[in-house]
Design goal:
By secondary structure, the protein is mostly helical. Helices cover about 50% and strands about 0% of the residues.
Length: about 80
Amino acid sequence: MAKKRRGLSYKKKVADINRIYDAHAKDGLSNREIWRRYIYPVYAISERTLYNILGASMEPQNIIPDDQLTLFDFTEQKN
């Protein structure tokens, strides 16, 4: 099977979903309840996709380096 190249937006989504999942998993909620209450309303992904993303977070190519620039770094902030 060919390796998939993932963009920065996918890596950010994986990081955000894992952050949400980790925050609510400590409360004793089931995976389905976390998906239904907190993840689906924001990202509109299926439960199966959630499990794929939780598994993808362990892969080293999905780690976002802290020093990587994004397009948002170049926008001017107006006061």
